[in-house]
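Entries read sequence, tokenised fold; example below:

***
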Amino acid sequence: MDVSTVYDSPLGELRLTGEESPGGVVLTTLSLPGQPIRPADRADRLFTEALRQLDAYFAGRLTRFDLPCAARGTDFQQSVWRALDDIPYGTTTTYGELADLLGVERAEIRAVGAAVGANPLLLIRPCHRVIGADGSMRGYAGGVENKVRLLTHEGALQPMLG
């Protein structure tokens, strides 16, 4: 059974969705504000550990999430998503570097980008750490402004004066 909860974050209201399991919940999606969401029954009590880790991340005490996840995707998407898990906190990589790591031909970098863009576990699986080869903030399903906010929070970007 699909269950969900809402987390009030510095980015706005995040929606976590998962599948109920004997040990609590296995995450399937984390959506940022403005993203389409899948209907699910509210079951806040099952998300205690995920919410604790989000609190620690936004407080600067957690650099890597350790949660059971079961995101649905193709074998290729799954391989790209696993590679995202290995991008260290506070750093960035490019789509080309990610393709090289995966042994994907340069001509197929767009496929890597599409898989990154299809990541259903934003923030938990750090696709926000992938940027353009020229340092530009390429698209992010949660909005480029949130990508910049997350990278600034992690120290990969310097805060903007304003």
About this structure: The CA atoms of residues 58 and 132 lie 25 Å apart. Strands lie at 2-9, 12-21, 24-31, 41-42, 93-94, 130-131.
